Records
---
Amino acid sequence: MVDEKLLEFLESYVTEKRRQTFHEVLLNRTKHFTVVLENIFQPHNASAVVRSCDVFGVQDVYTIENSNVRKVSRKIAKGSQKWLDFHRFKSDGDNTQECLNELKKNGYQIIATTPHNNSCHLSDFDISKKSAFVFGVERDGISDFMLENADGYLKIPMVGFTESLNISVAAAIILQDVTNRLRNSNLNWQLTEKEKKEIYYSWIEKSIKNLEKHKKFYETNYKEK
């Protein structure tokens, strides 16, 4: 629950132009689609996917870190990681299963991006269902466990000699296609008002230097006792 009075106090430290930008960006944010990075070990690839999520309005990113810790290159991500919500699965347990459980609980179907024989072509993909697009490790692709537990498979048609794309390129192509179709549909894809308010509040906090100092000042001088 967002403390409205605290929010109003903190907003005074953020320019009106920046606040307006937050509201405009939130209008195009969605949780209808999300991205799952399974054990990605190259920071520049993970960072490029994160940047694409921000560019195409995908708010949530799930990372499965079984043997590779998620690292984001600020140079490549261009600060986009600051505005997204990350759900990291990095315990000593079965991170893949825990991530799948969380996605299912949140209503997502699991879509493995792979040139699998039964893969759906991108242009034929049904955007009506909440979907989590899984991208696998650069060398071997998505894990066998993920493939076995996926609800569907998705591929980008290719007509050249090369049989695969770099995951950052694949993610950008897929997200551009599905989010563009989503925004031109009649589906209820936008964030709820509650989600918008919570994300807006987090962005306001991230925009303020010495945040804790200001919050302490508010607690001392403005908060109702």
---
Amino acid sequence: MTEERPEIALDLRAAARYLVENPVVLDEQEPSMFRLIRRHGQRLDQWFTQRFGYRLQQSADTVRLFKSTFVARHRPLRTVGYQSRDFSQREYTMLALALASVAAGPNVISLRDLIHKIRAAAADAGTALSETPSERRALVTALKWMIDGGLCSEMHDRVDSYASDGSADAVLKVRPDRVALLPLPVLSRSETPEQLLDRSVQGHSPRAKMRSMLLEEPVVYRSDLSEDEWSELRRRLGEEAGIFDEMFGLRIEARAEGVAAIDPDNGLTDSRFPAAGTVAQAALLLIDRLVDHDQNPVGNSTVVGVVADLVREHRRHWSQVADDPERLTKEAVELLVNHRLAERTLDELLLLPAAWRYGADVRVEQMSLL
């Protein structure tokens, strides 16, 4: 490791952390961070390229970190707004069609003309579109995501009105140069999800792949790697710990079952756990109950029953989602799966080793309640 002056080391770490969480950085939205990244752009590019197989591309007002080494299992797009949620499949479709329709320009387009181009792109792709309100809402969701991401802006009127009025119009200013920066290069050579996942690791060293997994996944289990890869990772843990500390301030935690990069500040994540809120609390308490269960995996009906018991105990502290124990179970289990604390099949839930670090001395009164 090379020694940096303390202030430079802190700036580099702040910039690297921000880029990992925000792979597209825009001058007009985050001017101070944009300038910081540009100031240290050469060093950051060297770090990410040599250590992770990533690529940092910079322009006058846009920075893009291409994370092309490893595709995380669960990193969905989120809708814009206070009650943000994962994109639906239809919203993904509308976003892909909208991006394809503006990638080559023009720089200014009316909403009506854009819709015509989207319908033409859908026809070319063999996708049927309709004029239903749900379809219009899906398109508005996609366009609002593009606007929030600096890919386009509203020059006249707003796209929101199209959700309830199929005759509504607006004028958008488009940034085709930024649209072109969105797809990973491997996407253009992949025709199926399986090809995308396979080709994402091709051409990169095993060490870059393992580092990317550690950075992008909540935990890397021994079963995720070949025996040779696992042995290599364990042998080089000291070196990996130095890299993750220097770049991100993360601490490497190793167990017999797996390895995780832990953030002492709990900030470098798009989904925190444990966390406040009914679903997160139910998930944490569910772990506490299941680690003492005499079976693992546990049948789905048993899991629903455990959550129903938790609702009876803690309903006065929880939000309306607790009125439907099956829905609460589904959302709590999904949270555990996304954090690689559990795996589910059609009929069972299997707790994974990392879940045991949350399974002792859980007290709901110590949590922030909604």
